[in-house]
Amino acid sequence: MSRPDLLQRLAARHAERGRHALLRRLRTVQAVQGPRVVVDGRVLLNFASNDYLGLAQHPALVEALVAAAGRWGVGATAAHLLGGHRDEHAALEEELAAWTGRERALLFSTGYLANLGVLGALLQAGDLCVQDKWNHACLLDGARLAGAELRRYPHADVAAARRQLGALPDAAAVLATDAVFSMDGDLAPLPALAALCREQGAVLHVDDAHGLGVLGPGGAGSVCAAGLTQDEVPVLMATLGKALGVAGAFVAGSAALIEGLVQFARSHVFTTAMPPALAAATRAAVRIARFEDWRRDQLARLITHFRHGAQARGIALLPSPTPIQPVVVGDSARALAVARRLEADGFYVPAIRPPTVPAGRARLRVTLSAQHAEAQLEALLDALAAALAHED
Ligand SMILES: *Cc1c(COP(=O)(O)O)cnc(C)c1O
Fold first, then answer.
1. For 292-301, which contacts have Cβ atoms below 8 Å and span 24 or more sequence positions?
2. What's the pLDDT score for residue 27?
């Protein structure tokens, strides 16, 4: 018998990562206070959080959570279809649909599950799923799990996407894209993709994990910012764990889409509903995200400030208009060394390396939050310039 030992193989892959400066390390955060975290007993300014509007510790969310836990307890105790769907969930779904200008919305326990669920409900073997190469892992996994033919076009290349759709004109097709690319912060060409999907008879599925709360009027997201209707973007997915500061996700679209998902989205049907208290906290988050424009204004000011400051110091940034402001350094070992220096100086900025980003494109992924102050950005930029010069 020559059966491979899987645990040994895993250990070998682990060792291989280590040799290439690609090993991930779980860090335990001991405390969080606004933009500060305590890691290994040291206070660090946090530039790694997706809490763009500063809502995760907002007292209104905490109060809503505690009050709802008093009413409901902690767990939902069952899947949505089996008694886990509480009026807190139903109200949140209505509010999310209204916010994003869609007919209906359906909650999922995470964004990862939402994308697996939608793509699995829509696609079958023999169908086509065309995706941007830089899409989030869960969109890729969703297409693979559905058994569809997955074609990935070069980043933001609408002409390449057209060729891929055109090559299989008889296949039912979904075109799926991140709206804001999570490791680069740039925006997908949504209007051109919507026009392409209309021309090709494909369903456009937009993942707005990083756009909801941040972009568009009232923070309604990238699709609203682009002025695209439910007909143009039939499948809108967004998460609740980023700008909204909670956890979970939803898909919004027509009543027919949502009814179909309730039947066929396996990650909705066969999983425990999100705790109702989280739904209550999310409702509080939606109210703040929708109506407190000053948080988005502050974020926009910080983004501009950071970009100007980087330019003044000769730090090259990517063309990102969002709070995701990566600094590409290329080599993985160098990215790690810069991250370590920043940490020694009191800043938490993670190094993002392959396979999360393409080979030779390792980077420091800086994320900004409305909670940061301009002086904190200045301090980070000074430390960043020094660390980059040192590790040249
Ligand atoms: C974070 C993210 C997800 C996953 O959402 P979770 O709720 O964290 O599972 C999906 N898509 C994109 C683009 C993301 O950035």
1. 292/53, 293/218, 295/53, 295/54, 295/370, 296/53, 296/214, 296/219, 296/370, 298/370, 299/52, 299/53, 299/214, 299/323, 299/368, 299/369, 299/370, 301/374
2. 93
231: enclosing H helix or E strand:
none
Mutate to test the pocket of ligand 1, among 112, 215, 356 (most ligand atoms within 8 A of CB): 112
Average pLDDT of 68-88? 97
Among the atoms of ligand 1, which is closest to the Cα of residue 248?
7
Which DSSP letter does residue 365 get?
E
User: Known catalytic residues?
Assistant: 182, 210, 242
**Sign, Cα dihedral of 32, 33, 35, 39:** negative
Residue ranges lining ligand 1, Cβ < 6 Å: 110-112, 136, 138, 178, 182, 207, 209-210, 239, 241, 249
pLDDT digits (tens, 9 = 90+) for 363-387: 999 999 999 999 999 999 999 999 9
108-137, pLDDT tens digit by residue? Answer: 999 999 999 999 999 999 999 999 999 999
pTM of this prediction exceeds 0.90 = yes
Count of alpha carbons within 13 angstroms of residue 72, beta-carbon side: 27
Give the residue from 131, 91, 106 showing the smallest Cα distance to 254.
Answer: 106
Residue of 99, 94, 110 lying closest to 247 (CA atoms): 110
Q: What is the pLDDT of residues 299-358, one digit of tens each?
A: 999 999 999 999 999 999 999 999 999 999 999 999 999 999 999 999 999 999 999 999
Euclidean distance between the first and final Cα of the chain, in Å? Answer: 51
Give the torsion sign (CA, 261, 262, 264, 270): positive
How far CA 260 is from CA of 139, 193, 256, 363, in Å, comes to 19, 24, 6, 40
Q: pLDDT tens-digit profile of 18-72?
A: 999 899 999 999 999 999 999 999 999 999 999 999 999 999 999 999 999 999 9
Helices (H), the chain: 6-19, 59-72, 87-100, 111-122, 137-146, 158-167, 190-200, 222-225, 255-264, 266-269, 276-291, 293-312, 332-344, 374-390
DSSP helix/strand/coil, 256: helix
